[in-house]
Amino acid sequence: QVQLVESGGGLVQAGGSLRLSCAASGRTFSTYSMGWFRQAPGKEREFVAGIGWSSGRPDYADSVKGRFTISRDNAKNTVLLQMNSLKPEDTAIYYCAAGSLLISRRETDYWGQGTQVTVSS
Question: How far apart are CA 113 and CA 121, in angstroms?
């Protein structure tokens, strides 16, 4: 069992930066791939970024490549999403997720409750 709690969302102007953090509890955290998804109003939830258990192969949605960076610290049970050069279209609720097949199949086993990110133009 893994519990996920996100923090770090907020309001930022276009071009600005935010860093999201996901604190995980559970002894098996390090065995899961971790990722971030987002859901904008009226849209389906979409994959943003993911990282394998060994941090060796981060994966990104095309829309955020070059702007967002995902990282994890297994010793601290945390996953970070550094978001730079934010755009209004990045506005969404961002969810932290864990899953054994998150990288390969975008399948998740656990979700956080989400944190709101709003980018003003």
Answer: 26
Closest CA to 61 of 50, 72, 73: 50
What is the number of alpha carbons within 13 Å of residue 55 lying toward its C-beta? 12
Task: Give CA–CA dist 29/66, Å, rounded.
Answer: 27
Residue with tokens 């998150």: 102
Nearest to 40 by CA among 97, 89, 104: 89
- Tokens 């390090």 belong to 30
Asked if 97 contacts 20 with a C-beta cutoff of 8 angstroms, the reply is no
Measure the CA–CA gap between 20 and 113, rounded to whole angstroms: 13
Give percent above pLDDT 90 in the chain.
82
| Secondary structure, 3-state, 12-70 | EECCCCEEEEEEEECCCHHHCEEEEEEECCCCCCEEEEEECCCCCCCEECCCCCCCEEE
Per residue in 46-75, pLDDT (tens digit) is: 999 999 988 777 999 999 999 999 999 988
